[in-house]
Amino acid sequence: MTQKNWRKSVVYQIYPKSFYSPEGNATGSIKGVTAKLDYLAELGIEYIWMTPVYQSPQHDNGYDVSDYYAIDPSYGTMEDLDELIREAEARGIGLMMDIVVNHSSTDHEWFQKSLSGDERYRDYYIWRDEPTNWESKFGGNAWEYDEKSRQYYLHLFDVTQADLNWENEQMREDVYEMMRFWREKGIKGFRLDVINLISKEQDFPEDESDGRKFYTDGPRIHEYLKEMNREVFDGHDVITVGEMSSTTLDHCVRYSNPDENELSMTFSFHHLKVDYPNGEKFVAAPFDFIQLKDIMSTWQQGMHGKGWNAIFWCNHDQPRVVSRFGNDTNHRVESAKMLATVLHGLQGTPYIYQGEEIGMTNPGFDDLNEYRDIETLNNYKLKREEGVSHEDMMAAIKQKSRDNSRTPMQWDATIHAGFTDGTPWINVAPNYQDVNVEAALDDPNSVFYHYKNLIALRKELDVLTDGDYTLLTPDSLDVWAYTRKTDREELLVVANFYGTETTYTIPEDFERVSVVSHNYDVPELDGTTLSLRPYEAIMFYKQK
After folding, report:
1. Maximum CA extent, the chain
2. Pairing of the two strands 103-105 and 189-192
3. How far apart, in whole angstroms, are the C-alpha atoms of residue 535 and residue 336?
4. Model confidence over 35-60: pLDDT tens digits?
5. Which of 26, 262, 362, 439 is a plausible cystine mate for 225, CB 3.0–4.6 Å?
6. Is 479 in contact with 535 (CB distance < 8 Å)?
7. CA 205 – CA 215 distance, rounded (Å)
8. Checking DSSP bridges between strand 189-192 and strand 94-99, what pairing results, if any?
9. Active site positions, annotated
10. Residue 18 to residue 377: CA distance in whole angstroms
11. Burial 487-496 (b: 16+ CB within 10 A, else e)
12. Measured between alpha carbons, how far is residue 302 from residues 195, 266, 274 in Å?
């Protein structure tokens, strides 16, 4: 695909562990993805991003890789992956692999040799005589002591995920060689996990903070990404997206500006922290609507003509958006369509997470024993030790746990939602008999067909790719309205983010235009006054 084509494409993220198991296992498989390719082709997506299927002890659901060249048996075989690549390509779909190279599993051969003192591999990881006060993203100190060598190794995530030392040139070359292996297999894209954390300040300073300022967007990060581009991406038909943790707009412009020769696009997460009071994730709280509009609008304007956003509401680490920013009970369908309209009207490459296109919700598990996520369980333990009540922690977990998005894909109304004939690794959301793919495909007014229309519009309307962005309602407490404009086309998106009726005065030049997307039957427009029903969203379009 040319650059212009991928900028009009939509990516579908698959968490294979929870997608589909035709074998009847507890977890999904690569064959399960292949079996559902016709469904994805019907939706209209052109890329699949699949989270890690490499060999792994699965302490962090595959983000702890023990062999970058092997498929974990729980997902299938290398032959299964080759078949998926071929079958996807036959349907015009490219496969993107998740690359996890900020850290590896401590079971990886490199780390085991590093532990043994092997001269080559000792320096593949970050060892120190004394720890700092840096905190792990999963809670607790980020350094683990090894009694044999009497040194500490760095793990910004779980203790079984040791950070790789990107200062080591040989380690970097081994990483690039691995990535070239997958590229030559026919992989059409790479999603790079927490890639902006790979460059650490080498004196490992500390202050009163958690330490992230000393390793986020670090001193050599752009040098490393340019090197990776030269060694792996340049001259090949692949797209790349970097997951950027706690990053800045200026850095993401550099990461994704074509002139910089680094990445195609970037994920940033600031808009998904608007329900973190005082920056604290595990606290139940409403989202800040004004802040949500402000952050996303700032990134729309700041990246326009300079870099490229990967735009998204959901992924395997985030709650379901219809439960988070919508209404997953009384207005599930309307709010799911509204959120889709707002996102897909923006500039960037939209990413749809499995189940989002049918309006899947958080499961609402009440029992801690129903959760599997290591971050959730670690934080429960830590917060309880700090004195937070069980009730407050469960309220936060029901809202914020990563497992909210990891429950099995709901294919039909049969037992376990058609995900497996066996017992799934995590329980299915209780509403699967009403919310499932089969029901969505049978309903022409379903959330699925709304997404399908938005995906088709992105291919059809250049303004969605090229248009500039203007926020019209920065201070409105219930309406998000914005325009996208080029010299030839204009788009107006108006959305009511809440479950009560409201009104909005549209610009006069949008009185007589086409409605290209709507989640109700007919807009209620009286002159320039638009009456908005609960979670109503309208996309107006005109040519100049």
Report:
1. 78
2. unpaired
3. 9
4. 999 999 999 999 999 999 999 999 98
5. 262
6. no
7. 10
8. parallel
9. 193, 243
10. 19
11. eebbbbbbbb
12. 21, 13, 19
